[in-house]
């Protein structure tokens, strides 16, 4: 008689792995040293020095090698643990990969700490934290500018560092988790309009835009759902999204930033200074400019959206249909039909990709990949 099991399908193992990975991020956050994303960033930087040329073709090859390698590593990992057959190892592998690519807890902590520094009037301490959130030059920002930069970065990075990885993990498992993080990290490193990367980074930016199309809109919906937790109204978040998002130069940062502005009752956008120049961004939301206290609220909103997205990802992973895992096919010979059918489950395979304004975002935190996973600052790949 077959014993009942909660992990009889690849989808169940994937769902459990995602939940465990989220829990690990909540407890452990990002490691101070030896972060896998930082290691990927160092590899990417070395490969850029070897392959760089001022052309889209060179950038496309660079992106294909790194993203393809990440997806392949995830697929080989799932195959090795017997995805679809050995449920517990598969769940643990998914949990480790999920923890490695998530950045929600560190993001919330940095945003809240920036808000507290500004509330205490500690401008130098606040400027020291800005690079952990976004790519703007802190020397050019006053207290109001840092408050706005922090709120915008929290909104965009909640989508990039939490909602999107969980979405791709639910849809495509470990290959989706690693592939998405590779795409987003490359966008943060080379997806800029600077003279060096305008052409070389084009493929990474476009791929990031594509990979974030669905997750960014999911993040905007969840932001509206969570609005009452920070004193806002879902209707105001949805109205700001519908009215203002299309004016933003990034197809993905626009929805999440506009929804956050509406949920918090503030106005985002305006002149934005980057190392390569300044941009005048359209207004998002109809309230007053954010103040330091709004950063603390934005951090709470980010945490709430992250938890809601985790729940949605677990449900999606559990119900997604999937074909037989490779391990099942290899074990099929010599196993009774009933045993094989008992191993079959639901899982998914599909890897993600996209290009962006991007990923939006490429926060200085992303530029600091040698020590931290990427975060981004309200920028889109081609608008950062």
Automatic annotation (TrEMBL):
Protein role: Converts cobyric acid to cobinamide by the addition of aminopropanol on the F carboxylic group.
Gene designation: cobD
Entry-linked PANTHER family: COBALAMIN BIOSYNTHESIS PROTEIN CBIB
Localization per Swiss-Prot or TrEMBL: Cell membrane
Topology within the bilayer: Multi-pass membrane protein
Name of the protein in its database record: Cobalamin biosynthesis protein CobD
Highest taxon of the lineage: Bacteria
Alphabetical list of NCBIfam families matching this protein: PRK01209.1-4
Organism whose genome encodes this protein: Pseudonocardia lutea
């Amino acid at each position: 008689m077959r014993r009942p099991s909660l992990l009889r399908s690849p989808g169940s193992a994937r769902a459990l792995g995602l939940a465990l990975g989220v829990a690990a991020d909540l407890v452990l956050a990002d490691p101070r040293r030896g972060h896998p994303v930082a290691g990927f960033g160092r590899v990417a930087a070395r490969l850029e020095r070897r392959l760089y040329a001022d052309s889209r073709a060179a950038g496309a090859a660079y992106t294909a090698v790194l993203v393809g390698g990440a997806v392949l590593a995830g697929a080989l990992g799932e195959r090795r643990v017997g995805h679809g057959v050995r449920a517990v190892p598969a769940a643990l592998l998914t949990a480790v990969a999920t923890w490695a690519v998530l950045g929600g807890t560190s993001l919330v902590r940095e945003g809240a700490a920036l808000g507290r520094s500004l509330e205490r009037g500690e401008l130098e301490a606040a400027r020291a934290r800005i690079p952990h959130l976004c790519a703007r030059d802190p020397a050019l920002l006053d207290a109001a500018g840092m408050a706005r930069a922090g709120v915008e970065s929290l909104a965009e990075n909640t989508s990039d560092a939490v909602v999107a990885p969980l979405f791709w993990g639910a849809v495509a498992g470990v290959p989706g988790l690693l592939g998405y993080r590779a795409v987003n990290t490359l966008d943060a490193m080379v997806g800029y309009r600077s003279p060096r990367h305008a052409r070389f980074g084009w493929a990474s930016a476009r791929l990031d835009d594509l990979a974030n199309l669905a997750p960014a809109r999911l993040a905007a919906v969840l932001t509206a759902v969570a609005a009452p937790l920070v004193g806002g109204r879902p209707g105001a978040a949805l109205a700001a999204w519908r009215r203002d998002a299309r004016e933003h130069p990034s197809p993905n940062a626009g929805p999440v930033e506009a929804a956050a502005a509406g949920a918090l009752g503030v106005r985002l956008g305006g002149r934005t200074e980057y190392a390569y120049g300044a941009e005048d961004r359209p207004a998002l939301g109809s309230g007053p400019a954010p103040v330091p206290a709004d950063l603390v609220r934005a951090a709470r909103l980010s945490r709430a959206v992250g938890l809601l997205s985790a729940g949605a990802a677990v449900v999606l992973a559990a119900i997604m249909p999937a074909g037989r895992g490779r391990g099942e096919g290899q074990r099929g010979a010599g196993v009774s039909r009933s045993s094989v059918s008992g191993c079959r489950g639901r899982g998914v395979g599909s890897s993600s990709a996209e290009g962006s304004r991007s990923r939006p975002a490429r926060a200085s935190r992303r530029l600091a990949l040698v020590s931290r996973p990427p975060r981004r600052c309200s920028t889109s790949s081609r608008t950062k």
